[in-house]
Amino acid sequence: MKKLLTNNLGLKLLSVVSAFMLWLIVLDQVDPVTYESFSPIQVTMLNENVVTDQGLVYQVQDNSDVISVRVRAKTSVLRQLSSSDFTATADMEKNMKYGNLVGIEVVCRNRDVKAEDITLSRENVVLSIEDASTEQFNVVVDQEGSPPDGYMVGTAVPEQSLIQISGPASIVSKIRRVEAVLPVATLTSDRTIHCNLRVIDGNNDPLSTAELATLEFTGKEEGMDVDVTMLRTKTVPLRMGYTGTPDPDYSFSSISYKPESIEIAGTSEIITGVTEIVVPDEAVNIDGITENLQTTVDITPYLPEGIRLKDETEANVAVVVELERKQGRTIDIPVSDIALRNVPRGYEVDFGELESVELTVMGTSADLADLNMDEIAVTLDLDGYSREEGEYTETLDVTLPGSAYSLMDEVQVEFELVRSTGNGGSTSGNTGNSSEGSETSGGSSGTGTGSASDGEEDGDSTDSGPGTGTGGSTAGEPDGSGSSGSESGGAGSGNASDDSLERE
What we know:
With 504 residues, the chain is mainly beta. Helix content is 11%, strand content 42%. It contains nine helices and 33 strands.
C-alpha cells in the first residue's frame, strides 16, 4: 500500500496543483470580482453636542449628508447587497475638520466586504454653523377652499395663539407667521379639526422643506387643533336715505349707492328674521351742499345684533347724491289778492296806482311747471303799526306750496295808510271799520252810511275779502243814525269821533 501511495509522488503532486489551479481558473470565470454602486445612503450625524453645547446650530450644505458607495467584490457577494446594508456616519467629535467638515465613515454589514473595498462619492459632510435662535410667532388660521353655498366660517380659533420655534438665526429671522391650514370645503357645522402648520416668511412664501428640517417646534411639529363655528349666509337689500336740505339755490334730485344689496351672515336663528339692512338718514347729510355729493358710508354700525358681513371689504358703501340747480319763475300778484292783516281800526290801506307785485319763485323745471298759482298766499301784516297816516314800505309774507319752492328775494310793497273816508273801502277793498260794531271778513257788497256819536270802538279789523259793507241803524231811524249799529263787509263806512278809537 505504501508503495502504491509513494509511487510517482511528484507526478501526483503536480496533478493536484494543476487541478487546484484549474479550479481557481474556473471559479474566477464563474464568480468574478467586479464593482457595483449603491445609493442613496443617508449619513447619520454623531455627537452633535459638540456644536449645540456652544449655543450654535448647523445646517448640512448641498445635501452633502446623502452619498453613494462603490463596492469591489465578487459577483456572488454583490448580488447579496443593497443600500440598507451600509451604515454611514459623520462623527463631529472625532472627524470634525476645518470647522465645517465632518469626515464620513461607511461600514457594510456583509463581512465579505471590507472597508478598503468601499469607495465613497464624497469624503465629508459640509456644514454651515451659526448662532441658534428661539422666537415666538403668531398662529393664524388660513382657510383652504370655500365652504358650501349658504355657509361661511364664523370663527376659527387655534388651540394656542403663539408657538415657539428654534433653529438657525438666519432661518428663524425669516419667519413672519405660522398658519394653521384649515380645510373648509365640506364644513357645515361646528367642529374641532386638526390642522397642519405652515411657516410663512416675509415674502408671504412658505419655507422650503430643507429650511423646515432645521427648525424645532415646541411640541407642535405634527399640527394644531382648531375650533370652528359655522354661520348661515344670505343676500338682503340695502336701504339708505339722507337728511338735510341743500343750498337754497339747489334742489335734491336723486340718491344712489353701490352695492344695493349685501350678503350677511349669522346663526340660523338670527338671520331668518333679517330681511333688509336700513341705514339711518343721518348717515348722509346734504345740508347746505352746492354740488353733487360723493361719499362712502360704513354700514357696519347699522347691522342688527348678531349679524355680520360675509365680506368685510363691502362695509364701505359708495353713495352719490345728485342736485339740480333751481330755476326762477316770475309771477305777478294783483294787489287785490293781497290779504291784509291787523289794519288799525279807522284806517285803510291805499296802494295808489300799484296794480300788482312781482314774485320770483325758485324751483326745479318740473316743479315750476306744476306750480299752482292758487296755492300762493301773499299777506301784508300791519301788526304793531301806529295810528299815523303816511306812506310806508313793508315786506310781504309769501307762502309757497311746499318745500320744493323758495322765494328768490323778499318782496316789498309801498302803500299809504289813510283814515277811513266813511263812504268807501280801501283801494284794495280788503279792510273796513265801523263804530261800536263788530266786523267779519268777506261781507256782501253794497254801500251804506252810518254814524256813531260819543261811542268807543275797540278791536282791529282783520278783514281780508273785497267788497263793502252796509251799516245798520237802531230803532228804525230813517237817517240811519243811532248809537249802536252792526256792519258786515270787507269795507264799510261810518263816522266816529277820532279821539274815541282805540286799537286792541
